[in-house]
């Protein structure tokens, strides 16, 4: 949770890092155990802030919500929590919340995964439609997408479905994987128009 958006400083009464801490603490507080002994954690969250605090964060609310979703997913993986459906986070304003305070409500919500139709576009090749099958990318001919590039590892990166979204992860490659010019270290959710760079090659993710 210390990476990416949460590293940014701000002068708001409510800091993004504190919202993230409160959200994962809420997962701990409200986890339950099912009949099979699995620990089930909430996956649907509403973060309520005082309208003044909400306004101070308004320019990057969407980015904050995205990072909170990623933080919840990562925390669930680390703690071995089971999520019954996609993680959703909504940051809203509420007059009943005092300035500087954070109010989180959460619940376990079971939804059918709704993976959007998507494809990978590589210059000079036919678009590759994505399914629920993991896609490997690398220099090895055995990969689903293979590049003849010495700067790409034999098994360089992987794209797969996690809950309701396609995510990309680097498979310990020598030179790393970038998305929109930013190196990835953890799983990164892909969005329409994202540009994946490996060595001297690029792949565009298109979602419909």
Structure description:
The chain has 208 residues and is of the alpha+beta class. It has 3 helices and 16 strands. A 6-stranded antiparallel sheet has the order 7-6-16-15-12-13, with no helix packed on it. The protein has a 5-stranded mixed sheet with strand order 9-8-10-11-14, with no helix packed on it. The chain has a 3-stranded mixed sheet with strand order 4-3-5. α1 (16-30) runs parallel beside α3 (61-79). It is globular and about 60 Å long.
Computed CA radius of gyration, to the nearest angstrom? 19 Å
Please give the largest β-sheet. 6 strands, antiparallel
Mean pLDDT: 89
Strand order of the largest sheet: 7-6-16-15-12-13
Tally of contiguous helical segments: 3
Map the helices and strands.
Blueprint: H1 16-30, E1 32-33, E2 39-40, E3 44-49, H2 51-56, H3 61-79, E4 88-93, E5 102-107, E6 118-121, E7 128-129, E8 135-138, E9 145-146, E10 157-162, E11 165-170, E12 178-179, E13 182-183, E14 188-189, E15 195-198, E16 201-207
Parallel strand pairs: 3-4, 8-9
Antiparallel strand pairs: 1-2, 3-5, 6-7, 6-16, 8-10, 10-11, 11-14, 12-13, 12-15, 15-16
Summarize the structure.
The protein has 208 residues and is an alpha+beta fold.
Notable characteristics:
alpha+beta, 208 residues, 16 strands
């Amino acid at each position: 949770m210390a990476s990416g958006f949460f590293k940014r400083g701000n002068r708001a009464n409510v800091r993004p890092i504190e919202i993230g801490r409160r959200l994962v603490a809420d997962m701990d507080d409200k986890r339950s155990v099912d009949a099979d002994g699995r620990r089930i954690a909430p996956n649907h969250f509403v973060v309520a802030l005082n309208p003044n605090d909400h306004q101070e964060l308004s320019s990057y609310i969407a980015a904050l919500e995205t990072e909170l979703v990623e933080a919840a997913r990562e925390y669930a993986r680390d703690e071995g929590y089971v999520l019954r459906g996609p993680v959703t986070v909504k940051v809203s304003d509420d007059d009943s919340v005092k300035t500087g305070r954070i109010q989180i409500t959460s619940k376990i919500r079971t939804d059918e995964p709704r993976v959007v139709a998507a494809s990978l576009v590589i210059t000079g090749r036919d678009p590759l439609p994505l399914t629920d099958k993991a896609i490997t990318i690398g220099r090895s001919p055995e990969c689903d997408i293979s590049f003849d590039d010495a700067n790409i590892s034999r098994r360089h990166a992987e794209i797969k479905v996690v809950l309701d979204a396609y995510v990309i992860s680097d498979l310990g490659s020598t030179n790393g994987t970038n998305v929109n010019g930013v190196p990835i270290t953890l799983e990164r959710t892909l969005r329409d128009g994202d540009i994946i760079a490996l060595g001297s090659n690029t792949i565009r993710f298109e979602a419909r």
